[in-house]
Design a protein that fits this description.
The chain is of the alpha/beta class. It has 8 helices and 5 strands; from the N terminus they run H-E-H-H-E-H-E-H-H-E-H-E-H. It has helices at about 1-20, 30, 40-50, 70-80, 95, 100-120, 135-155, 185-195; strands at about 20-25, 55-60, 85-90, 120-125, 155-160.
Length: about 200
């Protein structure tokens, strides 16, 4: 019995040593606003990654209402704590909803990517869109930030992650801004093809 127990302990230690780390730095879309955290796409991704070889531990460093500036204030401690192999950045929508300068948003996203890369992590950038409150010119400039950052820094990005969700009433909460529980698996499916090669 003790020999079996020893083998189990060695196996667990081996799994822990080989496990990798993934950090999600985001806002309400990743924090699971309005739904149970267990239903959120980040939790669903964790379950999917548990079967990956090697397995990944997902650390959700997302805060509802956060901006790119908030992300900059938080990223260094998160990188130090978790030493991630992969960082998923899902920020910018709250900046856009406040009408902040696209140049500033881009500058902050560039710095976020730089810090993650400097820490040795692969980066996946998740694109967002905003309602047309500020006019077509601003919304186009805003959405253009993500492919521009991805191209300049040679990082992978996912086009609008709510593309298959945002206009489907059955997948959105009453506020029209946040996806509901039914939408979360759709978000994971949207992200996975770009994430998998980075693992």
């Amino acid at each position: 019995m003790s020999r079996i127990l020893g083998a189990v302990i060695i196996a667990l230690i081996s799994m822990t040593a080989s496990a990798k780390s993934l950090v999600v730095l985001g806002d309400s879309i990743s924090a699971g606003y309005g739904i149970e955290v267990s239903q959120g796409w980040v939790t669903l991704l964790q379950k999917q990654l548990e079967t990956h070889n090697p397995p990944y531990t997902v650390h959700n460093e997302s805060i509802s209402g956060d901006t790119t500036a908030g992300g900059l204030a938080r990223i260094n401690p998160a990188l130090q704590r978790h030493q991630p192999d992969v960082v998923i950045i899902e920020l910018g929508a709250n900046d856009g909803l406040r009408g902040l300068s696209p140049a500033l948003i881009k500058s902050n996203l560039v710095e976020l990517v730089h810090r993650a890369q400097k820490a040795g992590a692969n980066v996946l950038l998740l694109s967002m869109r905003i309602p047309p409150n500020y006019g077509k010119r601003y919304t186009d400039m805003f959405y253009g930030i993500y492919p521009s950052v991805a191209k300049e820094l040679n990082v992978t990005y996912v086009p609008f992650i709510l593309e298959d969700v945002a206009l489907v009433n059955d997948l959105m909460q009453a506020d029209g801004l946040h996806p509901n529980a039914k939408a979360q698996p759709v978000i994971v499916e949207k992200i996975w093809p770009q994430l998998e090669p980075l693992l």
